[in-house]
Amino acid sequence: MPPSIRRLAPVALALFACSNSHTAADAGADGRVPLPDARAALDAAACSPSTQAVDLLFVVDNSGSMGEEQASLAEQIPAIVRALTTGVTPSGERFSPVTDLHLGVVDTDMGTGGFAVPTCADSDFGDDGLLRFVGDSSSPGCRSTYPPFLTFPGGGDALAADFACVARVGTDGCGFEQPLEAALKALTPESSGTIFHAGSGGHGDAENAGFLRDDSVLGLFLLTDEDDCSVADPSLFDFGSTSYPGDLNMRCHDYPEALHPVGRYASGFRQLRPNPARLVLGIVAGVPIDLVGDPAAPDFASILGDARMQERIDPTDPLRLVPSCDVPGRGLAFPPGRLVGVGRSLADMGAGVVVGSICQADLSAELGAFVRRVADARETPRCFTR
Q: CB of 339 within 8 A of CB of 180?
């Protein structure tokens, strides 16, 4: 396991009772896990009362194309924190304020399995899903270091500003983004037995201990302009690989069998919250803007079935995919099929899911929907039925 110094580099209705025994082995190839019998699960459930504890983890792409997108996120952070802690959204909606909040950030750099790859400074573990405590000291008012996660109460009026400083993760990270693996490793307990790169365990009860609490609502917010490339076989990154020939930049597309199945993440995130209604996933990625509609009620069939969401080689440039959206002054984004697939699976399980487009400068609708979903998730009834 890498040393901790690597840190430098309306209430949702669940479809079944508050606990079940499904594991990653139960997941299909698309990550969708079959629902248990509702009555049997209800009889066996030990369900949770409402809670005030909210733990929000932001997973931010730190590759070279993410400057504008990180700025858009940082611009919205004061409104996010203010809404959570006051109970008033920018649109005027009201809810019970969050009185016990943890805020943390990880980036998408998980290394390249020990193979030297340009743009990937730490070829072995990268930043490894460790909570960031480095601030964007080049921005006015930002310090160079912060606690691994920020808290309310405790952060005072400076909480939003401090969080914005940490969420600006920079653009010098590995160009092979692994947001799903980063989030899972950040939160999974080492004691769970889930194995990550080189036989290492999760950080949830180790380096990142204290962030995720047993009784909390867990909110995961993913911001990236590419799809997930969470690798199961690190030799995908070997320039000389005979198993995975071809241009390195296209291998995540060319060899999906070398990636972890999305079921690993649908099941893994679900197991972190025995009550699925206390899990909220926000995805802001390369979904075409016109497919979003209501971010808090995504039409997964329409999104995933749209031609622009299919990975295709760009006929004008065989070393890249056709962008799913291309906005002048904003840049390119690519189809996030794996990310949206995990969202669909979690929604099937009873989690709250928000889907938005990174192809716009104003992320207020997506972030507002995420905040509202998180706030509502605290008020879950003791048990759920169909």
A: yes
Which two structure tokens, joined as six digits, stand for 49? 């009362």
Element (H, E) at 39: helix 38-44
Q: Does a structural domain hold residue 384?
A: no
Distance CA(363)–CA(262), nearest Å, equals 26
Q: Are 149 and 57 in contact (CB under 8 A)?
A: no
Count: domains in the chain: 1
Helices (H), 313-383: 337-349, 364-377
% of the chain beyond a pLDDT of 90: 76
Q: What's the chain's average pLDDT?
A: 87
Domain that holds residue 50: 4-377
d(CA 345, CA 263): 8
Is the pLDDT higher at 298 or at 39?
298
Structure confidence at residue 157 as a pLDDT band (50, 70, 90): low
**For residue 274, how many other CB atoms are within 10 A of its CB?**
17
**What's the pLDDT band for 164 if we cut at 50, 70, 90?**
very high
* Token pair for 343: 């969202």
